Amino acid sequence: MALKFWKKFEKSDFFQSAKLKLRQSYGREPKFNVEKTCDITVFGDWGLPLNALNPNDIVYSFGVCDDIDFELALIKLKNVHVFAFDPTPYSVDWMAQQSLPKELQFYPLAAAAQDGEFYLYPLVNKKGKKSTIMYSFSSHQEARNDGVLVKALSLKSTMEKLNHNTIDVLKMDIEGAEFAFIKSVIESDIRPRLIMVEFHHRFKDFDKQDTIDTVALLRQAGYQIVYISPAGREMCFFYQ
Q1: In the chain, how many domains are there?
Q2: DSSP codes of every residue in the chain
Q3: What is the CATH number of the domain that holds 98?
Q4: Per the confidence metrics, is the pTM higher than 0.85?
Q5: Fewer CB within 10 Å, N side or C side of the chain?
């Protein structure tokens, strides 16, 4: 009973926020502040100004794994069109078993700064056990026997493939690939109204400076922070 309570407490906003502040005090986490006050609607770890969305808006969601609650909620509440992406074997199999609404389309593609292929590697927990569900991107690409080779497209190429001239929301939980991907988006002329991202500077090969630099790029491009999750990893940016 005590263990169950503790695990639940660890996931609470209070605990996550306190843990973040402690890590920030030791210099292990970057510090950011909300720059624009909006009426935020929160779905799990994600928050966004729901009133900024319009019916028939186009939402790209990269790295959905086996959780599309957020995407389904947006469809139900705002009647948007969602295009979900995830190239990992588990997600592809899981999505194939779902009864999806016509407003949600799924593609087994990865997000990248440029078109091509790269390896994703299974996450390893503290006990050394490899995940069969979660995979991460590594800047050190190796043809290991546990790597999964996936097809990747840039945002521009993805939009061309789907015949979209613009998109309204770009959401990503892409396990470390977000740093190069966001840089490529900013270097293009594509400006989604909202960019939502989970940062993975805690992963091997990355550090907090990667997140600091990426946030700086977004701000220089005209984006403002409108939401930061209690854990500090998920953020939402509004284009002005």
Answers
A1: 1
A2: -HHHHHHHHHTSHHHHHHHHHHHHHTTSS------S----EEETTEEE-GGG--TT-EEEEE--TT--HHHHHHHHHH--EEEEE--SHHHHHHHHTS---TTEEEE--EE-SSSEEEEEEEEE-TTSPEEEEEEEE-SS----TT-EEEEEE-HHHHHHHTT-S--SEEEE--TTTHHHHHHHHHHTT---SEEEEE--TTSTT--HHHHHHHHHHHHHTTEEEEEE-TTS-EEEEEE-
A3: 3.40.50.150
A4: yes
A5: N
